[in-house]
Specification:
Helices cover 58% and strands 16% of the residues. By secondary structure, it is α+β, with helices and mostly antiparallel strands. Strands 1, 2, 3, 4, 5, 6, 7, 8, 9 and 10 form a ten-stranded mixed beta sheet that branches. Strands 12-13-17-14-16-15 form a six-stranded mixed beta barrel, surrounded by four helices. A hairpin with a 2-residue loop joins strand 15 and strand 16. It starts with a helix and ends with a helix.
Length: 859
């Protein structure tokens, strides 16, 4: 009987099957897309910052860590990869114009540009950092070979297969250039002035003691993206290494990268939960409407002797058949939809997975939601139909859906309260637990919003009826009144569209906030347009000389020296710890760039004002963690005048010298350390000037005479922001899934409405209504649905977007601040009104074309 009933009503069966398939496809496509988005996000951090999540560095003023440290690190639980590196610096022998080495009359070699030499393990290093070979191959261990950056090779007339001449302690050594690297990833170390050489060769050429400058640690899956798990691994390594080395976060990443990744993971997890909710709701919407339409039919079966359990069995078997077919169809549609999304993303991304990344869990989850959603959607209406008497069932067609019990909207308000509470409590605990609680809060909010729709329909009825009448005349007012006749159906229809709008507003708002945060970080951390490295300490007055270059708006000089921590209580060995003190002129420095303060530092202006007073420092997050410092604390350094205490004015994010950096003023540098020169000049380019052309002009004037190196930062900043633009586009593409689900939910429901009301619409035609007027009735009804959906989407989207930022801060420790962006709200309003009308055109035209005699005979 179930199978015959499905074949008897092919239109209704097809719509129900389509609803189930769409729900399953939405969940599967979202899971696949989220997984690929996660892979892309991880690729972003690996491409720009490398794969290292922890770093082991020498303790105190020791030059290297011992070889035994590497063995200990590799044996630690949670460590997937430990890769050693040996760093040193040298200078290239000076060259004459014809390429011959430049020597003076005494036979002494003239020196040219400085060059950083990095000793690597060629087999392991590519697994830790991004090396993009333009030509050639990696050097082999034990061979006198090197990799160099392509731009460095072009600037110094070096070619693939040619020789790189290095000045070693004993003599000059020639290395064969076996590969050229693209200007990205590891090749941008030291502004591209770097050569990668086998680690054993570096040790031999420069007569370095056995050991490593640093060991990069890559954690096992699931640890790197969890700030608490990564901190636990750091503590485990510290315990195992004891007093032999320091364990910290890489300076270029600090612990902000896992925090940032955690924020994006929260957005993706939220998107996945909402998509699953929408898929299940679409299935419920479709099947509940189908069963409700058949209430009269079920009553007839009960009247001729069918028992209640038989009614239940028939409906559930029918639902089971549809759910199985719908799930199979939905899996195929989900894979095709995911492929389409990946194709759209291919135009947005340079870094993407080779194929669709999904697991058996994704398939099982999608099928499970399809089966369970169909079962729950069928069970409630079927039990209701089975419980009532045949006489009531025969009359249920006109009244079954007219009223909603007060307990429904009261329960909705209760769920909103529960959701609000779960957004903020608990505030601490394991990251995974917090994520689960916050996701439960999202679901509670969404369910609460859905259940309060009946209240909105009643309260807004005068306004919506007036608007519908203004647009569609008297027939519009009639269509608007139809919603009160079927409040439950209106509730599920509004929910399917409003949830998609909430999703668009939430995700777009979070991405906008994250993108703005990254832009601010770039302005502070890499504020200068040009960085000029001096080969030796130069006079500060060179900064004034640079102002004579056309296009140079402002300059700032800085000097870095090594200082010793003076507090014996902080020493980990008999040797004092060494830090790098960077001296700046605060006023000049802020004209060019700024500092990125970590979360919780209060007003930045107060921190800068305190630094300008002297005897104060900005300390990096690495130094603050190492010595347990907080803003307002004290750090003692050894100066020429003896032990001197400095007040910590602020804690900043630093990238150089493994993060062991403190920042002070030139006044303190001259007074306490007897230094006054500069080794780095930062330049801000005036508006309307091309930074690269200004850089080239500086090279033309001073590169030969002063030996300086000029590095433009614009390409780096543009590259980072371009990737975040692509990431924004990714979430926009994901949002299309929500729009499709909402549109299909509205189309499905409005089609069901027309089918159910065929007899009523035929009666209107018999009384003289024109086909155009029937269309107006249906469109007016859809317009009101669109207006209520837009209202719910905008209000709850705004509230949840603020709460989502708070949740991201609680979970990740990030310091995001909410910023209103009007774009998603206007977009949601346009989508709600546009979709409500376009998705209803087909059902409305079908209603207008139905023959009057057939409509009056319809059951």
């Amino acid at each position: 009987m179930a199978w015959r009933n499905l074949r008897t009503r092919p239109g209704r069966t097809l719509l129900t099957l389509l609803g189930i398939a769409l729900g399953v496809a939405a969940v599967l496509a979202t899971s696949i897309t989220n997984r690929n988005a996660t892979n892309t996000l991880n690729a972003l951090f690996e491409r720009t910052l490398g794969g290292a999540e922890l770093q082991i560095t020498p303790l105190g003023n020791q030059a290297t860590v011992g070889e035994s440290v590497l063995d200990v690190a590799r044996q630690a639980p949670g460590v997937r990869l430990a890769v050693p590196m040996l760093r040193t610096s040298t200078v290239l022998p000076g060259l004459l114009g014809d390429g011959r080495s430049a020597q003076n009359a005494s036979g002494q070699m003239a020196l040219g540009k400085s060059l950083q030499i990095i000793g690597i393990d060629p087999a392991l290093e590519p697994k830790m950092r991004v090396y993009t070979l333009v030509a050639g191959r990696f050097p082999a261990l034990g061979q006198y070979e090197a990799l160099v950056c392509q731009s460095f090779a072009e600037q110094n007339d070096l070619t693939l297969g040619g020789a790189l001449l290095l000045s070693g302690p004993a003599a000059n050594e020639r290395l064969k250039i076996t590969g050229l690297l693209a200007n990205e990833g590891a090749a941008m170390t030291n502004g591209g002035n770097v050569a990668f050489v086998p680690i054993d060769v570096v040790s031999d050429i420069f007569a370095l003691e056995r050991g490593y400058s640093e060991i990069s640690i890559q954690a096992q899956d699931g640890i790197g993206d969890d700030p608490q798990a990564l901190a636990a691994l750091k503590a485990e390594l510290e315990s195992r290494l004891g007093q032999s080395a320091r364990v910290g976060y890489p300076a270029a990443r600090a612990d902000q990268v896992p925090r940032m990744a955690s924020s994006y993971q929260l957005a993706l997890a939220f998107f996945s939960v909402v998509a699953q909710f929408m898929g299940a709701f679409l299935i419920y919407n479709t099947f509940a409407t189908t069963v409700l339409e058949r209430t009269r039919e079920i009553g007839m079966l009960r009247a001729i002797g069918m028992q209640r359990r038989q009614v239940m069995a028939q409906v559930l078997v029918e639902a089971g058949l549809l759910s199985i077919l719908g799930c199979l169809l939905g899996l195929g549609a989900g894979v095709l939809l995911a492929r389409g999304l990946m194709a759209l993303m291919r135009g947005f991304f340079q870094v993407e997975a080779a194929g669709l990344a999904f697991t058996a869990t994704d398939l099982a989850k999608s099928v499970g939601i399809g089966l369970l959603g169909t079962l729950l959607a069928t069970l409630l209406p079927a039990r209701q139909a089975a419980r009532i008497s045949p006489i009531e069932a025969l009359a249920a067609r006109g009244r079954a859906d007219q009223r909603v019990r007060p307990a429904v909207w009261q329960g909705g308000l209760a769920l909103l309260g529960v959701g609000w509470l779960l957004m903020y409590r608990p505030a601490t605990g394991p990251t995974q637990w917090l994520v689960m609680v916050r996701m439960a809060a999202f679901v509670a909010f969404l369910m609460g919003a859905v259940l309060t729709v009946p209240v909105a329909v009643t309260v807004l009825e005068p306004v919506t009826r007036w608007l519908a009448a203004r647009l569609y005349g008297a027939m519009g007012a009639l269509g608007a009144l139809n919603l009160k006749r079927s409040v439950t159906r209106t509730m599920v229809t509004v929910a399917s569209l409003a949830i998609s709008l909430i999703m668009i507003i939430e995700v777009d708002s979070l991405v906008y906030i994250l993108k703005r945060d990254v832009s601010d970080w770039l302005d502070h951390a890499v504020g200068a347009d040009l960085l000029i490295h001096a080969p030796y300490p130069m006079r500060q007055s060179f900064a004034q000389t640079l102002l004579s270059i056309p296009g140079v708006q402002a300059t700032s000089s800085s000097r870095a020296i090594e200082v010793q921590v003076a507090d014996a209580a902080l020493d980990r060995t008999t040797q004092r710890d060494a830090l790098h003190l960077v001296a700046i002129d605060p006023e000049q420095f802020r004209q060019v760039g700024g500092k990125e303060f970590v979360a919780g530092q209060g007003d930045p202006e107060a921190a800068w004002a305190l630094l300008s007073q002297g005897n104060t420092l900005f300390v990096s997050s690495v130094v603050a963690e190492e010595y347990g410092l907080q803003q307002g604390g004290r750090l003692a350094l050894q100066t020429r005048r003896g032990r001197q205490e400095f007040t910590v004015a602020g804690i900043t994010t630093e990238f150089d010298q493994q993060g062991l950096v403190v920042t002070g003023t030139y006044d303190d540098l001259r007074r306490l350390f007897g230094e006054s020169r500069a080794d780095l000049f930062s330049v801000k380019v005036a508006a309307g000037y091309d930074a690269e052309r200004v850089a080239q002009e500086i090279r033309n004037r001073f590169e030969q005479s002063e030996g300086i190196q000029v590095q433009a930062t614009q390409a780096f900043k543009e590259g980072v922001m371009m990737f975040y633009d692509r990431l924004t586009s990714l979430f926009s593409v994901l949002g299309l899934v929500g729009v499709v689900i909402g549109t299909m939910g509205l189309l499905n429901t409005m089609t069901m409405n027309v089918l159910e009301r065929t007899r009523e619409l035929g009666a209107l035609r018999a009384l003289g209504s024109l086909g155009k007027q029937v269309v107006q009735i249906v469109l007016a009804e859809a317009l009101v649905v669109g207006l209520i959906s837009a209202l719910y989407g905008i209000v709850f989207g705004y509230v949840l977007s603020r709460v989502l930022v708070t949740a991201a801060n609680l979970i990740s420790g990030y310091d995001l601040r909410y910023a209103f962006n009007v774009r998603p709200y206007l977009l949601s309003l346009a989508i709600a009104l546009g979709v409500s009308q376009l998705a209803t055109l087909a059902p409305a035209r079908r209603a207008a074309r139905v023959a009057i005699t057939l409509a009056l005979k319809h059951e």
